[in-house]
Amino acid sequence: MLSYQHAYHAGSFADVLKHVTLCLICDYMGQKESPLFYLETHAGRGNYDLTSPMAQKTMEYKTGAGLFWKNKEKLPAVFNSWMEVIHKYNSDTLQLYPGSPLFALHRLREQDRFNFCELHPGEFYFLKNLNNQHKSVQYLFKDGIAHMNAALPPKEKRGLIFIDPSYELKQEYQLIPDKIMQSYKKFATGVYCLWYPIINQRENQAFIKNLRTNHVENQLNIEFLLDPQPQTGMIGTGLWIFNPPHILQEQMDEVLATLRLYCHFWQA
Ligand SMILES: C[S@@+](CC[C@H](N)C(=O)[O-])C[C@H]1O[C@@H](n2cnc3c(N)ncnc32)[C@H](O)[C@@H]1O
Question: Residue 78: phi, psi to the nearest 5?
């Protein structure tokens, strides 16, 4: 039984990096008129109330999206499309933080097709009731990793696969990169974006080493480390992207510089 609830972490600095990157990739891929397939293996509930007891318990959004909301007039243009989606759900104060499904639904187009997988019954209940205007959306109460293998290659021949696991099971650090490589072999032109937490350097090194032993030509690894580093918990966050848009590296340099400016370790 899964117990992870993203509501405790919604809008954290890790979500900022993850969702800004997702919006940038969607915007780039959406420039080409032909339809694409968007697959999300670990969708969560799709939208988070920051006044809920869960968000208020950790207040992680205060050192993430909350800071960016406060400074929204000063942010560089690479944050615009991410902030545009957040604006759709908020007016003066930041109360709702969209999850990755909403960022993708807003940044992609009517001609695109969406699959969102979620295995937690409580999270799935909210996910399947997400309000959206798109016709081609399927919410699937399924193991997203198994579905990734079954759904690829897509009929559209263009695809973005967003993989945001909760890593509740230690073996996922080994299993998920292996499964991505299997899917990549079936659909080598897809864009794959994997998120991971950086918890302690040694554990992270083994995971990264495993990811590096692939033969994918075009890939990008982005990491952000908190400064100063907390003694426990997450000290940073990373993304591993196969077939990234060619402009992404430059855009991410600006995103990371801005994160370094705003996001510092903070003890509640
Ligand atoms: C980090 S959260 C997702 C957050 C979401 N992507 C976002 O950014 O808004 C991970 C989610 O994956 C779900 N989950 C865990 N294992 C899964 C699996 N094998 N297949 C589908 N969902 C899974 C968990 O219940 C949890 O809701």
Answer: -65, -15
| C-alpha of residue 221 to centroid of ligand 1, in Å | 21
Ligand 1 centroid, distance to 5 Cα (angstroms): 8
Whether 164 is a known active-site residue: answer yes
Say which of 164, 178, 227, 253 is annotated catalytic.
Answer: 164
Q: Is it the case that residue 263 has pLDDT exceeding 90?
A: no
Tell the residue number behind the tokens 């509501």, with chain if given: 7
Please give the full DSSP string across 230-261, using - where no structure is assigned: PSSS--EEEEEEES--TTHHHHHHHHHHHHHH
When computed from its CA atoms, the radius of gyration of the chain, rounded to whole angstroms, is 17
**What residues line ligand 1, using a CB cutoff of 6 Å?**
2, 4, 6, 18, 41-44, 99-100, 117-120, 123, 143-145, 164, 166
Domains and their CATH numbers in the chain? 6-262 (3.40.50.150)
| Closest ligand 1 atom, residue 99 Cα | 9
Across the chain, mean pLDDT equals 93
In the reported structure, the alpha carbon of residue 119 is separated from the centroid of ligand 1 by a whole-number distance in angstroms of 7
Q: What is the pLDDT of residues 128-151, one digit of tens each?
A: 999 777 779 999 999 999 999 999
**Is residue 268's pLDDT more than 70?**
no
Q: Whose CA is nearest to atom 13 of ligand 1?
A: 42
Tell me the per-residue pLDDT of 199-225, one tens digit each, with 9 for 90 and over: 877 777 788 888 888 888 899 999 999
pTM (2 decimals)? 0.96
Cα-based angle 262, 197, 228 (whole degrees, multiple of 5): 40
- Distance in angstroms (rounded) separating the CA atoms of residues 22 and 12: 15
